[in-house]
Design the sequence.
């Protein structure tokens, strides 16, 4: 044991024996405190370990900690082992996670400091030890070091230094591809050839469109074009497609969120690069939630600029733009790249017409992106009529897929679009449309959730939190297979909560996504403090999977649920939203009942729902139901209207009498003898002018004998 730590440990032991442990001695430096934390964690003195860790967090900055951990004398393996051990101890788990987060944030801050990067670049021309230190720093800086390294390559003032910088960029690898491609278009021919060789060695395919651009630009030298062609061959690029299609392919890759295209998944921000001759490479930090969307838009814009007839590129631009806005709004972040566009994302989603709108919907469906799907449906609701209703069949009939999507809002919104278009030709899913309209009119209950956890006790705890948050827990289990059996009767799962070992999360997610019920359900993953950084890197912000600390408070878990639901599907379906859907569905059915386009969608299929709703609903929605019943040729509808009118009071009774009258006028007298007697009685006893007039109108429409009415002739 180190002599200083031996003395410290003996002193702590003596004090502990005499008076019990209180706090570590103040004034110790970060290195000493960290060593003490490691030591006492390894010998299972959790009280001492916790005390030293707490003092470390209170006194040492993130960069101080990082400097210690990355120092030449520090044993990083011992720290990793101690942190893993602490993560398995309840009293140390949280503080160990905080310590790890602090160290990692400090390492990033040091590695990416521009002054340290510039110093490290110059050290590449120094002694062997200086070069080793510089290489370690620059590799840690990643793409943030590329501007300084590239500047030396471009200037070529020191040939040996330029060569060292070139080799360092290749070592940095994947994250250097975008800054290199961005700069390459604007550089001299010799540097372009150098970059082509670097991209060949790095070996990532997202360099392909930029390389194709060099090849197809006739203004470039033969040597540059040949170097770019060699790089493309090395990357195995498909050169049979157009350059426009190559940019569209890159846009798709970003739209799908390929992990290899996101430089730093665990970071809050990632860089969008630009180049000019005066300042060189400059990065604009954008929130990680919107990074892929911005890149997808940029690539799609390049694609469309090369081929204005590339409808797929247009659809990609519109879809990525909608998603960018969704994720920026949900995360509360600004977009320094596209945030000041003259036109809204909705403009692009609607202006290009129904065909593009259907492709946008297909893109959302392909990614199970509920928020984007709903945006696409909102655009189609504006642009789609009967003639364009099911265009886009080459993508599998997106509207028909939406009718089966595992989110109730998507299904009802798709059904409303179809109903409002009043199709004149059969399309095969007529019963499904009417069933979804009925569901909306009937009303939705509480949001639903399922839980899969490592133990039954963990499942019960998670379930209790969900119930408190207003969810109905449909099922809980310790494996996804057990869960599937338990929820076989569920039609929709609004949220999945997963609390299990980190090693089982990926396989469990794959199983969830393979089930039609949970293919698009937002998933909230509980992770320990040590596992949390890796989980957050695996599931970048803004998606349908969110990782949170399993030790988060109840309010913290609720906030995470709400944020996840908002970013994944637009929020929970509360009573207000459900009422709006009921009104919209009723209006769509009423329009069908009053329409003249045939009987492809038969409003009578929701008659039983209307009859129930006339009794269970109230206010304006009840009057909409009554209006719809008045337009259906059904004795049940007319009888129900008259019964409701006879039982009602005040202004509602007058309005219901009017709808009953409309039914009789359109479809004749279908009343019962008891109802006739009740109507006559109402006419005789009505003591208010408007009510008397409404009752008289119904009496007249029924064409009843007027003997009882003669008493009013005087």
Sequence:
């Amino acid at each position: 044991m180190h002599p200083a730590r031996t003395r410290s440990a003996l002193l702590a032991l003596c004090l502990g024996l005499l008076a019990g442990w209180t706090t570590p001695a103040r004034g110790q430096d970060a290195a000493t405190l960290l060593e003490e934390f490691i030591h006492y964690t390894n010998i299972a003195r959790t009280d001492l370990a916790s005390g030293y860790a707490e003092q470390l967090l209170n006194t040492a900055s993130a960069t101080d900690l990082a400097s210690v951990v990355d120092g030449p004398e520090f044993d990083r393996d011992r720290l990793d082992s101690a942190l893993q051990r602490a993560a398995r101890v309840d009293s140390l788990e949280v503080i160990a996670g905080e310590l790890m987060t602090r160290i990692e944030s400090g390492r990033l801050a040091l590695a990416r400091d521009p002054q340290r990067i510039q110093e490290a670049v110059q050290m590449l021309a120094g002694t062997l030890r200086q070069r080793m230190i510089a290489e370690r720093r620059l590799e840690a800086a990643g793409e943030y070091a590329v501007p300084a390294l590239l500047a030396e390559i471009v200037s070529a003032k020191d040939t040996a230094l330029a060569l060292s910088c070139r080799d360092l960029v290749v070592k940095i690898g994947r994250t250097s591809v975008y800054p290199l491609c961005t700069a390459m278009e604007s550089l001299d021919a010799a540097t372009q050839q150098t970059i082509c060789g670097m991209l060949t060695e790095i070996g990532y395919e997202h360099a392909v469109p930029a390389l194709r651009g060099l090849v197809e630009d006739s203004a470039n030298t033969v040597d540059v074009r040949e170097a770019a062609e060699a790089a493309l061959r090395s990357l195995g690029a498909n050169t049979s497609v157009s350059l426009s299609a190559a940019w569209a392919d890159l846009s798709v890759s970003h739209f799908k969120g390929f992990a290899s295209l996101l430089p730093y998944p665990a970071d809050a921000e990632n860089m969008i690069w630009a180049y000019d001759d005066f300042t060189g490479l400059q990065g604009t930090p954008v929130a990680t939630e919107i990074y892929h969307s911005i890149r997808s838009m940029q690539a799609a814009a390049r694609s469309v600029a090369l081929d204005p007839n590339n409808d797929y590129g247009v659809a990609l631009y519109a879809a990525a733009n909608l998603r960018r806005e969704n994720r920026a709004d949900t995360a509360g972040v600004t977009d320094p790249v596209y945030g000041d566009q003259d036109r809204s994302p909705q403009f692009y989603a609607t202006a290009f017409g129904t065909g593009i709108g259907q492709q946008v919907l297909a893109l959302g469906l392909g990614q199970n992106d509920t928020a984007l799907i709903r945006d696409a449906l909102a655009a189609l609701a504006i642009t789609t009529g009967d003639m364009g209703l099911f265009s886009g069949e080459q993508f599998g009939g997106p509207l028909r897929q939406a009718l089966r999507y595992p989110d109730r809002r998507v299904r009802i919104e798709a059904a409303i679009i179809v109903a409002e278009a009043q199709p004149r030709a059969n399309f095969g899913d007529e019963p499904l449309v009417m069933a979804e309209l009925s569901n909306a009119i009937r009303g939705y209950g509480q949001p639903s959730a399922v839980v899969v956890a490592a133990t039954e006790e963990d499942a019960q705890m998670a379930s209790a939190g969900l119930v408190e948050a207003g969810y109905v827990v449909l099922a809980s289990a310790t494996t996804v297979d057990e869960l599937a059996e338990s929820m076989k009767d569920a039609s929709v799962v609004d949220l999945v909560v997963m609390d299990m070992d980190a090693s089982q999360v990926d396989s469990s997610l794959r199983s969830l996504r393979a089930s039609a019920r949970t293919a698009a359900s937002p998933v909230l993953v509980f992770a320990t403090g040590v596992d949390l950084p890796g989980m957050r890197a695996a599931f970048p912000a803004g998606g349908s999977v969110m990782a949170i600390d399993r030790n988060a408070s109840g309010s913290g878990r609720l906030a995470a649920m709400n944020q996840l639901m908002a970013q994944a599907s637009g929020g929970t379906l509360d009573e207000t939203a459900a009422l709006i859907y009921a009104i919209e569905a009723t209006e769509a059915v009423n329009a069908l009942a009053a329409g003249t386009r045939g009987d492809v969608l038969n409003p009578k299929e929701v008659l039983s729902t209307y009859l129930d709703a006339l009794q269970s609903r109230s206010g304006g929605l009840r009057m909409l139901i009554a209006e719809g019943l008045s337009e259906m040729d059904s004795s049940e509808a007319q009888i129900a209207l008259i019964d409701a009118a006879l039982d009602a009071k005040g202004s509602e009774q007058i309005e219901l009498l009017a709808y009953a009258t409309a039914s009789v006028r359109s479809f004749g007298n279908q009343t019962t003898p008891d109802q006739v007697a009740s109507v006559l009685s109402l006419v005789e006893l009505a003591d208010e002018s408007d009510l008397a007039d409404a009752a008289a109108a119904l009496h007249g429409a029924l064409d009843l004998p007027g003997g009882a009415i003669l008493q009013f002739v005087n």
Remarks:
- The chain has 35 helices and seven strands.
